[in-house]
């Protein structure tokens, strides 16, 4: 809190990212991506109950699919450009 009052930015720890693996038929990988760009693959199978449970507890994550991407940030009062306070 003090850092925010002084105008300093707090570093982002990481974000979860689900991404399509190019060159595969239909494989996705769940990774934890640090603000430095370092990636850590997580040992979950796609659509596994543990994978879905992990993502359901996050305030944000990113999905990179075959035909596009989607970033979700549930911790914000703004969703899809609308204020929902």
Can you describe what's shown?
By secondary structure, the protein is mainly beta. The chain has one domain. Helix content is 14%, strand content 36%. The protein contains two helices and seven strands. The strands form two sheets. The chain has a five-stranded mixed beta sheet with strand order 3-2-1-4-5, with no helix packed on it. The chain has a two-stranded antiparallel ribbon with strand order 6-7.
Layout of helices and strands:
Elements: H1 2-5, E1 14-20, E2 28-34, E3 39-41, H2 49-56, E4 60-64, E5 69-73, E6 78-79, E7 82-83
Parallel strand pairs: 1-4
Antiparallel strand pairs: 1-2, 2-3, 4-5, 6-7
Give a brief rundown of this model.
The protein is mostly beta strands and 85 residues long. The chain is built from 2 helices and 7 strands.
Overall pLDDT metric: 78
Strand-residue proportion: 35-45%
Terminus-to-terminus distance: 22 Å
Order of H and E elements? HEEEHEEEE
Question: Helix fraction?
Answer: 10-25%
The major pleated sheet works out as:
5 strands, mixed
Keywords:
2 helices, 85 residues, 36% strand, disordered C terminus, 7 strands, single chain, mainly beta, five-stranded mixed sheet, two-stranded antiparallel sheet, globular
């Amino acid at each position: 809190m003090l850092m925010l009052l002084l105008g300093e930015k707090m570093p982002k720890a990481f974000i979860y990212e689900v991404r399509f693996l190019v060159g595969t038929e239909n494989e996705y990988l769940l990774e934890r991506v640090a603000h430095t760009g370092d990636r850590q693959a997580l040992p979950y199978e796609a659509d596994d109950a543990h994978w879905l449970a992990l993502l359901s507890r996050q305030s944000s994550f990113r999905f990179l699919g075959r035909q596009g991407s989607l970033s979700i940030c549930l911790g914000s009062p703004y969703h899809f450009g609308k204020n929902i306070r």
